[in-house]
Amino acid sequence: MTNVDLSHISGKLFIGGAFVEGRGERIDVLNPARGEVIGQIAATTAEEIDSAVESARAAFRTWSRVPAKTRSNALHRLGDLIAADAHRMAQIMTSEQGKPLNEAKGEILKLAEACHFYGEEAVRVFGEIVPNDQNGYQSQVIREPIGVVGAITPWNYPAELVGWKLCASLAAGCTILIKPAELTPFTALAIAEKVKEAGILDGVVSVLTGKGSIVGQALVEHPGVDKIAFTGSSAVGLHIQRSCPSVKRLSLELGGNCPLIVTKSADIDAAVKGATRRSFRNMGQICIAINRIYVAREIYDTFLDKFAKAADALTIGDGLNNPAADIGSMASADPLAKTRDHLADASDKGARVIAGGRAPEGAGFENGFFFRPTIVADCTHEMKVMSEETFGPLVGVAPFDTLEEAAALANDTPYGLASYVFARDLQEIYQLSAELDYGNVAINNVDAGIMNAPYGGRKQSGIGYEHGREGLLEYFNFKHVRLFHGVGA
Ligand code: TAP
Question: What is the pTM of this model?
Answer without folding.
Answer: 0.97
